């Protein structure tokens, strides 16, 4: 059999080691959860070869530790039901999660030398919602052992219950249980910090209408058409000095000023400018929506479990010669405006009139650029100091112009080093790698486009 050949060994249900479940206990979903119903979060963690691991050993160890970890996450092990208003809620009945065992020829190190989007997504198992969702698991875990050493762990879940930030936090909690049995960041399943009854506005506060209008237009626009266009995902790693150079260029005219996320703003601007050229946008830059984690802005506990990433459009209709500083300035202005009061305006509006219908494929018409810097996936260290080699993120399905995900690099590469995963139509992905401005920063491309 050829290198990279898959063999699926089986699927089983994993339930909590102990049940705290109360009969009839339900968890409601928030107005930030509901718009994400049609999307899935998929994450792949790669771990290195170990000479002292027997075949099948990792699957058995991980299955036992997973059962222990999910005890503290009743939403993960529950089942979806609809309330009288037609909104989803979770019946915390400890129905369990699905765990899949697979094997691949070769080693994880060899796999990473030639992996592409199509191959990598085989490491993440997913089932669409059943006609009777009460029997459908919302979380899946695939453990793929490489016969010559190494393991990949794929997590997939419905975006309705978790965004990439809290999915990453769960993975860290799972790893923690194998080290000390104690999670460094226990989950919190409380509500968003707003109810119409206790929201006291500043009398001089003006509602953030741009943000509300962005969600309003997404809700009211027709469902984006899912075409047969093939997408490719490329992974570009920017070392610390390269990111610092990009920040310096983005702030060359003092455009960005002081920023709480300079690496994200500079890299988001870089890809916004380059993809506008690749897509042949005339005059200005293409439509782009930022996707930002609002946990810190809203003062939520670090362990908040649920959706707390908010989309907002960034505009730049005309640009001069200094496109990168101008793009960075526009992004920084949007990030700055997304303060606690502005986000609460959106939550209040959604509570009143924004979620009485399904929002299919949120933001399917814009390029999406998501900031995942808020968590460090490389902290997911399992027992015996088993540390990740590499981590990949996907938010599926990808339609329209595509998406850009920006997150932290492996440890040891510098505090500002970042990984950018861009999922684009195949022909545009190839052109992006050849763009002069991208090549100026010489990122390491570790996942190439599909070869057909």
Structural class: alpha+beta
- Compute the separation of the termini in Å: 21 Å
Largest sheet: 7 strands, mixed
Please state roughly what percent of the residues sit in beta strands, choosing from under 5%, 5-15%, 15-25%, 25-35%, 35-45% or over 45%: 15-25%
Mean pLDDT: 87
Structure report:
With 452 residues, the chain is an alpha+beta fold. It is built from twelve helices and 16 strands. Helix 1 (57-69) crosses helix 5, helix 6 packs parallel to helix 10 (340-354) and helix 8 (262-278) packs across helix 9. The chain is globular, with a radius of gyration of 22 Å. It starts with 5 loop residues before the first strand and ends in a 5-residue tail after the last strand. 46% of the residues are buried. Residues 195-199 have low confidence and may be disordered.
Give structural attributes.
452 residues, 7-stranded mixed beta sheet, alpha+beta, 6-stranded mixed beta sheet, 12 helices, single chain
Give a short summary of the structure.
With 452 residues, the protein is α+β, with helices and mostly antiparallel strands. 28% of the residues lie in helices and 23% in strands.
Task: Chart the SSEs and their pairings.
Blueprint: E1 6-14, E2 26-28, E3 40-47, H1 57-69, H2 74-77, E4 79-82, E5 88-91, E6 97-104, H3 108-114, H4 117-120, E7 139-146, E8 151-158, H5 164-179, H6 209-220, E9 231-238, H7 240-250, H8 262-278, E10 288-293, E11 309-314, H9 323-337, H10 340-354, E12 367-371, E13 390-396, E14 403-408, E15 418-425, H11 426-434, H12 436-440, E16 444-447
Parallel strand pairs: 6-7, 10-12, 12-14
Antiparallel strand pairs: 1-6, 2-5, 3-8, 3-13, 4-5, 7-8, 9-15, 9-16, 10-11, 14-15
Helix pairs in contact: 1-5, 6-10, 7-8, 8-9
